[in-house]
Amino acid sequence: MVLDDLGSSLRGTLDKLRGKSRISEEDVDEIVKEIQRSLLQADVDVSLVMELSDSIEERALEEEPPGGTSARDHVLRIVYEELVDLVGESTEIPLENQTILLAGLQGSGKTTTAAKMAWWFSKKGLRPAVIQTDTFRPGAYDQAKQMTERAEVAFYGDPDEDDPVKIARDGLEATEDADVHIVDTAGRHALEDDLINEIEDIESAVEPDRSLLVLDAAIGQGAKDQAREFDDSIGIDGVAITKLDGTAKGGGALTAVDETGSTIAFLGSGETVQDIERFEPDSFISRLLG
Ligand code: GDP
């Protein structure tokens, strides 16, 4: 179980329960406090942390350990189940024909994630194409072109066209041989009407099978407004967290997951196309608590 891999102070606290068959309120209190500390440090929203703490406390004190289970293992199981419930399962990404739209603010890592995802799909045996509709950020076209060349996947962009919707339409046509279309969009420095109107128009034009919100791991509380705005405008099916190679643990993304009723799809941990993996609850939980 993932909790074998826990942060050392939490493991120490749990280990104090070894040999005990009953668990006291103080024991549970101490464990819950350790978990709260780690999760808050990892940028998980306070109200989510409180909900989780309440559930752990209630279950640890009320549920009888199944016969033969030690108090330690019983609490460990409850903590694990509640954490899995908090972070959710991985967003379903079928390996089949599809169009994926990426949304997010400027600098969140959309272009990088588009190329990484294309690389990931190509390693799964599909033929992806990246369509770059970001006409707002200077350099977005060149960046996407270079990264997709490195990933050895198809690319469409038009540096002379300033209508992103036209680029999206032309891109789908120009890359019709591809089976997975990843449509990168422009961000802005902040949530602006411009951004929302543009992404709504692109969404209508490409009719994506799924839309992913790209969030920097360091996002913290800002995740809530972004998630709500993008979810209201285009519907968010999953989250891609970037820059997990930094010090941030990405707990803020859970706010977005909660706000949109979605799940986490991909994790990015570097600037090259290979630095991507599918979200997997166990290792993410270890990271949050570590
Ligand atoms: P966009 O404006 O949303 O398209 O963001 P970009 O894809 O251009 O990324 C913004 C910056 O973050 C670039 O310098 C990227 O190289 C960097 N970046 C993106 N993802 C990651 C990551 O997972 N790790 C690190 N270290 N840098 C990243």
TrEMBL record:
<feature type="domain" description="Signal recognition particle SRP54 helical bundle">
    <location>
        <begin position="2"/>
        <end position="87"/>
    </location>
</feature>
<keyword id="KW-0963">Cytoplasm</keyword>
<dbReference type="GO" id="GO:0048500">
    <property type="term" value="C:signal recognition particle"/>
</dbReference>
<keyword id="KW-0733">Signal recognition particle</keyword>
<comment type="subunit">
    <text>Part of the signal recognition particle protein translocation system, which is composed of SRP and FtsY. Archaeal SRP consists of a 7S RNA molecule of 300 nucleotides and two protein subunits: SRP54 and SRP19.</text>
</comment>
<dbReference type="GO" id="GO:0006614">
    <property type="term" value="P:SRP-dependent cotranslational protein targeting to membrane"/>
</dbReference>
<dbReference type="GO" id="GO:0003924">
    <property type="term" value="F:GTPase activity"/>
</dbReference>
<feature type="binding site">
    <location>
        <begin position="104"/>
        <end position="111"/>
    </location>
    <ligand>
        <name>GTP</name>
    </ligand>
</feature>
<comment type="function">
    <text>Involved in targeting and insertion of nascent membrane proteins into the cytoplasmic membrane. Binds to the hydrophobic signal sequence of the ribosome-nascent chain (RNC) as it emerges from the ribosomes. The SRP-RNC complex is then targeted to the cytoplasmic membrane where it interacts with the SRP receptor FtsY.</text>
</comment>
<comment type="similarity">
    <text>Belongs to the GTP-binding SRP family. SRP54 subfamily.</text>
</comment>
<keyword id="KW-0547">Nucleotide-binding</keyword>
<dbReference type="GO" id="GO:0005525">
    <property type="term" value="F:GTP binding"/>
</dbReference>
<dbReference type="GO" id="GO:0008312">
    <property type="term" value="F:7S RNA binding"/>
</dbReference>
<keyword id="KW-0378">Hydrolase</keyword>
<keyword id="KW-0687">Ribonucleoprotein</keyword>
<feature type="binding site">
    <location>
        <begin position="184"/>
        <end position="188"/>
    </location>
    <ligand>
        <name>GTP</name>
    </ligand>
</feature>
<keyword id="KW-0342">GTP-binding</keyword>
<keyword id="KW-0694">RNA-binding</keyword>
<feature type="binding site">
    <location>
        <begin position="242"/>
        <end position="245"/>
    </location>
    <ligand>
        <name>GTP</name>
    </ligand>
</feature>
<protein>
    <recommendedName>
        <fullName>Signal recognition particle 54 kDa protein</fullName>
        <ecNumber>3.6.5.4</ecNumber>
    </recommendedName>
</protein>
<feature type="domain" description="SRP54-type proteins GTP-binding">
    <location>
        <begin position="97"/>
        <end position="290"/>
    </location>
</feature>
<feature type="domain" description="AAA+ ATPase">
    <location>
        <begin position="96"/>
        <end position="280"/>
    </location>
</feature>
